[in-house]
Amino acid sequence: MKHMKKKTLSGFSWPSQKPLLSKPLLSGRYVSRGFFMSFIGFMSFMSLDCGRAPAVADALPQIAYEKYTLPNGLDVILSEDHRLPLVAVDVWYHVGPANEAAGRTGFAHLFEHMMFQGSKHVPSDAHFQYLEAAGGTGLNGTTDFDRTNYFETLPANQLELGLWLEADRMGYLLDTVDEVKLANQQDVVRNERRQNVENAPYGIVAEALFHTLYPQGHPYYASVIGSHADIQAARLDDVKSFFKQYYAPNNASLAIVGDIDKARTKQLIEKYFGPLKRGPGVPAVSVQTPPITAERRLVVKDRIQLPRVYMAWITPAFFKPGDADADASANILGGGKSSRLYKTLVYEKQIAQDVSAFQQSLSLGSAFQISATVRPGKTVQEVEAAIDDELKRFRDAGPDEREVERARNTFETSMLGGLEVLGGFGGVADTLNMFNHYVKDPGYLPKYLDEHRKVSVTTVKAFAQQYLQPTARVVVHGVRGEPDFGAPVATPAAPKVAPGTGAEAMNADEAWRKDKPGAADARSISVAPAQSFTLANGLSVILQERPGVPIVSASLVVKSGGEANPVGKSGLANFTAAMLDQGTASRNAPQIADDVAQIGASLDAASTKDAITTSVRSLKQHFTRALDLLADVTLRPSFPQAEVDRERTSRLAQLVAQQQDPASVGAVAAVAALYGPAHPYGYVELGTDVAAKTTGRDDIAGFWKQRFAPANAALVVAGPVTAAELRPLVERAFGSWTGTAAAAPVLAAPATTAARVVLVDQPGTPQTQLYVTTIAPPRSTPDFPAIGVMNNVLGGLFSSRINMNLREAHGWSYGAYSEFVFRRGPGPFWIQSGVRTDATAPAVAEILKEVARLASEGATPAELVTAKDAIVRALPSAFETSGSTVGTLSGLYLYDLGLDYYTRYPGMVAAVTADAVKAAAAKYVPADRLIVVAVGDRKKIEASLAQLKLGGLELRDVTGNKMGR
Q1: What is the spatial distance between Cα 356 and Cα 367, in angstroms, rounded to a whole number?
Q2: Superfamily of domain 531-734
Q3: Cβ neighbours of residue 811 under 8 Å, at least 6 residues apart?
């Protein structure tokens, strides 16, 4: 699972030092079918005009591709696209928990981790280092119930590097796998389980759902990550057998998408993969998933504040009849604010904080799931009864035609919006591989989309009546209490064997494979320059024209955010943003939700300390209507008193829910310790419960009136839209906007940055969540390029010093990273990691050692090259999708960087010297001003932290407030 945040180059979307689209994703992420559906691929489309109503029978989209099979059985899928000088390399192995042996749950996922530990010609821990230095993004592997995949997106001239790496671990992994590497990754995976299952709210509750839905011994019973006992029980012989059986060319497919020359690409594929041996035949999975004939119920205790209700049914398998109807049913019941369950439970009755429904499509029997989080003061019984009432109405009467149309449009936008997730070309490659994996046809998209277009009122009603019966379901209540993690499983000492002990060869060595391939000739970035114009009222408009995929993204960025909150009104900017889509002069909140969903669009409003942003994404054919909706909620909000009261109740519940998550608790404590309660940076965007209770309609309306003005905003658009098309649309939607914004506030100096330990007690937690933090410079600092390079060395890359130390060398953590949160004012810097409880103090000591070492010794020449190349070579990825492009350009506007900034930025990075990196470390990460925030079991960690002598120790509660000893 990933824990790295997505961000744009400028640091606007997720302000950070690292000018990349996203941090590298950690190996070991496991996902489900919902992940696939969010990025269904890049297609070749007919031309669509702005504002045109969709034809009744638009041509079904096609993905342009070529598929062939090597003599050793490897499927190869190629798709050529020259829009950007990027290429995605994506390998699927047809193996997952569905193929696991009894007593080895989680083994497919554990093995995925092993694939990143080096092979015969790739040194240990070099995989990510090589890719990061080449400018790679979206680097990861994932495991789902039915498959495992590995992927990276690279500059097009680095294609050969990606093929070399993937072929070497396919053909030569066992040459270097040994007991030491296995033991290390067992530690890492068990930390992943602690972090993402046991220490995450509702983690063990969701796992219990699968324990109850599928019988013990079924491949899906243990979820994907497996149990501590089974993870620890894995042996080197298991790894070897698993590799020999499943990680062979004849059980894999390779998809390459992007700026490629097919003839040359085929030569490289033959060179690297052609000589690899075919493996044994893979036995078919012959598992029958028994139907549920009587309701099964379970209550699971967890460290949560808000109870949650889960329901699940066994439904048709992926790509089987009924699967498309399940998708539509999930959308109608729980697919956002326009859904039946949201309107009833969240909006009208206000008994649930959130509700969702989705079809988790799987090959051995899918799981249709509904979950709802209970509001404070309400009960699981009330929420369950309300869900049952809606389900009965749905079964009895079925949906209406508008609901089905809405579900079709939403699904189709999700399909066509595949470039908005997983970095564009990577989403295309994974889509081709997905269809190839499940139906043996990479070009299945038209048929799949047609299946969903054929969904009707009749077929959805029939699905509900056949499958969503109360006697055929599992009901799990997650309630507050002490969780039962089962008997503890000891972590054995590291094995004392010589490196390489137990390794063996599968393929004959070839001397040329030892040489890492160099880059081909670099290709110029073919991103057309952004255009801009200004309306007569002062509104700036920035456009990046992107021909191809008919998806348009647009954001209205108001240059005022949480920093403008008055004292005592923390969260006011965020409250205002949340109210924008809750009613306008012509629409109420449900009408807004319905109008957005009816065209399959998305509409969001959010705040940061620097800005409030309202955003839409839609098919180009619906962009005129989407832009009108954006203008309506931004320019004409009515802030109805009833909606303000409803949102206040929701916010208070969100603040309670925030206390369930150790990472959120740590962030709250960190900013409170850094800035103090009076500074607008001293609390998270949601604010505090005191402020939520006292903020009224007049406060919200006043903030909007003072801050929302055309000269204080920019409309940023990216998609297949020309300036000639866009200008009249913007003039019509925003030309009448008037008003003048109040002056930006002058921020006071932060209260304190004295070094000390801040401890938040959470008894019994299996991990400690760490934040090692101080105050960083503003985004305007001239040291920005040097800070970015320095931070890449310290903790910004997977191959950074801190992550390699805590994760790879010691196995204490699933991952550790550092981040500069750049803002107009001095934002925070922090090093963040979840670590094993008994390793808390040693992990802090190692972090501080790495900080001090970088400040005193600086970066090595190799580290300097890698850190700089990782920035510059990844620049094209910031423009890979319409969503990332809008985020990038929004940051340029927000921080007054100029639209030509990224033509200048590579030169700035290239000029960073080793001395500048060393100086940046000493100046901006000073050991004498670092605060260590630890969220964990005080009885187990306080004494060892005190022995580090890091200054005073203070206690804070889960809301960030100081406590007495």
Answers
A1: 14
A2: Metalloenzyme, LuxS/M16 peptidase-like (3.30.830.10)
A3: 183, 184, 185, 186, 187, 188, 191
Contact (Cβ atoms closer than 8 angstroms) between residue 710 and residue 738: yes
In the sheet that holds 66-69, the strands lie side by side as 29-30, 137-143, 148-155, 86-93, 252-258, 75-80, 66-69
Q: What is the mean pLDDT of the chain?
A: 89
Among residues 159, 163, 154, 160, the alpha carbon closest in space to that of 133 is found at: 154
**Nearest-5° Cα angle at 194, 193 to 200:** 100
Identical fold for domains 531-734 and 756-880+896-963, yes or no, is yes
The CATH H-level superfamily of 756-880+896-963 is: Metalloenzyme, LuxS/M16 peptidase-like (3.30.830.10)
Angle at 376 between CA 374 and CA 382, to 5 degrees: 45
Main-chain dihedrals φ then ψ at residue 919, nearest 5 degrees? -65, -40
Instruction: Select the more confidently predicted residue: 451 or 750.
Output: 451
Strands 66-69 and 767-775: unpaired
Q: Side chain identity at 192, as an amino acid letter?
A: E
Where residue 746 falls among pLDDT bands split at 50, 70, 90?
A: confident
Which of 612, 579, 563, 605 lies closest to 699 in space, CA to CA? 579
Amino acid 528: pLDDT:
64
Distance of CA 584 to the CA centre of its chain: 32
Query: Quick count: other Cβ atoms within 10 Å of Cβ 955?
Result: 17
What's the one-letter identity of residue 679?
A: H
The pLDDT tens digits for 827-845 are 999 999 999 999 999 999 9
pTM (2 decimals)?
A: 0.88
pLDDT digits (tens, 9 = 90+) for 597-640: 999 999 999 999 999 999 999 999 999 999 999 999 999 999 99
